[in-house]
Amino acid sequence: MVRIDKLAILIERTVPPIRSPILNLEQYTTPGDIAAKIALHAKLSGALDEAVVADLGAGTCRLIAPLLILGASKGYAIDVDERLAYECLNASRILNIGDKLIYIISRIKDEIGPLKDGVDLVVVNPPFGVWRKGADWEMLSYALYLNPERVYAILKSGNIEYHTRMARERGYEARVLWSEDFPIPASMERHRSRIRWIKVDIVLFKKE
């Protein structure tokens, strides 16, 4: 049995954080323990066996890497920020999952070609909507548009009723798996706190 703590440490040590995050993209580095817990939940649920997975707004690939480590057969990492592609692909080689990972530099849009063949599982850590209201739903909506069997999303707490209602209209059931504090390190001069903590829900969207 894979231990969450060991997998989390491996991700933290191997997959770098997002350095110099871009403000209007609301880029946040996913903590290794959250990524590990999501991956292990998918593994124990039987959702990774020969699965094709996608990570929307992948950054340096902290969310998708453990999915590939634990058994997914292929992964697509999609992000508009090309600076992060090298960090992700370099880490994937160290983790021996490079042959299963494709990094696509693109905005989230309908015409992302490789995804049209279908994905089984999507992970997404969307913007929390601090700078642009509704930004979280835009990315989550695209995840559901891809029609996977399940979507794991890290969402700012307090909006679950809205997301549940919108997901139901698309044929998905939403369930909060757990909640925790998400750290956002200070990255700009105007930030007063060294770390800001945001309460988030880890939500599973599953086809009804």
Structural notes for this entry:
- This protein has 208 residues and is an alpha/beta fold.
- It has one domain (4-17, 46-207): Vaccinia Virus protein VP39 (Rossmann fold), CATH 3.40.50.150.
- The protein has six helices and seven strands, in the order ααβαβαββαβαββ.
- It has helices spanning 4-14, 32-44, 64-69, 83-94, 135-145, 160-168; strands at 52-56, 74-79, 101-105, 121-124, 150-156, 172-185, 195-207.
- It has a seven-stranded mixed sheet, with helices on both faces.
- Helix 3 links the parallel strand 1 and strand 2 (74-79).
- Helix 1 (4-14) crosses helix 2.
- The longest helix is centred in the first third of the chain and has 13 residues, at 32-44.
- It is globular.
- The two termini are 29 Å apart.
- The model has no long low-confidence stretch (mean pLDDT 89).
